[in-house]
Amino acid sequence: MISRKGMTGRSWRFLGTLALLALFPAAGLTIALGAAQRSPLPGRVVDACLAMMGAAWDLTERQFSVAPLTTVAVLFVAGSFLYAVLGTGASLVNTRRLLHRPRKYIGGRLENLDAALARPQFRHLRLRLLDSPRPLAFTVGLWNPQVVLSEGMISTLSQEELAAVLSHELGHVQSRDPLRLAVVRFLADALWFLPVARSLAADFADVVEAAADDWAVAITRQPVDLASALVKTARAGVQQSIPLAIPLAGHLTVEDRVERLLGLVNRKGPETTKRRWLASGFITALLMSLLVLPHAYSATQREIAQAMARIPAMSCHVSQR
Questions:
Q1: How many domains does the structure of the chain reveal?
Q2: What is the 3-state secondary structure (H, E, C) of the chain?
Q3: CA-CA distance, 199 to 276, in Å (whole number)?
Q4: Angle between helix 195-220 and 4-36 (nearest 10)
Q5: What range defines the domain where residue 162 resides?
Q6: pTM attached to this predicted model
Q7: 274 or 183, which is more confident?
Q8: What percent of the chain shows pLDDT beyond 70?
């Protein structure tokens, strides 16, 4: 079993790789838009937005007549990033709505939960209760993560199992996993056309979940308690999942997590394959060539024309006799 620090470091590497992948199309899009739009934008933000909206179609028509493939590539990349922005925004709105449903738990009402919360690690844990018979436990909130437990979860699990689940969610809180998952989900949506992006996002979700499991084991010293909680919630038709601020599916199943906790098998590493990397590299190179090379060629042609214009004109005088 990989250590908790090792899992955390691996998750940051996945996030960094996705961020680096996003830099290539973003840089190409910036270069292409900068080369196409040479007129200065108005100073005021509102005027700039109105001017850009009014000139968008004219600019697209003009550029499409000159470089149709480049224009299509710009619209493709820009549309992908816009889709990611809208999807992330919708998920954040749903998260804020979700936080209004549960009520803050003060303590003294549920003996089983109070006994589990008596551990010093949970002293500053922000806990909310959800009125639902289904056994649910998740972490929400980008800047101030909070743990949400359903009443069904509290009534289903024992004191030790509740402590294990709370320790798991505390691992998500301490690592600020909702925020990191939001960033990964945005990058995965923006780079949906790269086969490796979704695979890296799923690997990241697996590593985050495994790191939270390891956090729970480090606190409780009883991996069986968390495994038992996973089995009970799975029987109820609910799987313990990653924080629900922005859901992101990974490869890990309940069986994988239980076997990992009990040390029965050593699960293989990330699912990202070399074939996906090669395909993604080819697509990235193609997009960059469409976005950057036509403008670089045009700039070279302009420089040559300007240099030729600076050469003094030479005239031939033929003497007539």
A1: 1
A2: CCCHHHHHHHHHHHHHHHHHHHHHHHHHHHHHHHHHCCCCCCCCHHHHHHHHHHHHHHHHHHHHHHCHHHHHHHHHHHHHHHHHHHHHHHHHHHHHHHHHCCEECCCCCCHHHHHHCCCHHHCCCCEEEECCCCCCEEEECCCCCEEEEEHHHHHHCCHHHHHHHHHHHHHHHHCCHHHHHHHHHHHHHHCCCCHHHHHHHHHHHHHHHHHHHHHHHHHHCCHHHHHHHHHHHHHCCCCCCCCCCCCCCCCCCHHHHHHHHHCCCCCCCCCCCHHHHHHHHHHHHHHHHHHHHHHHHHHHHHHHHHHHHHCCCCCCCCCCC
A3: 8
A4: 150
A5: 4-297
A6: 0.73
A7: 183
A8: 63
Q: Within a domain: residue 320?
A: no
Token readout for 14 is: 């996945």
For 238, the token pair is 């609910």
Tokens of 293: 């090379």
- In a domain? residue 93: yes
Per the structure block, which two tokens stand in for 35? Answer: 């080369």
In a domain, residue 84? The reply is yes
Within a domain: residue 85?
Answer: yes
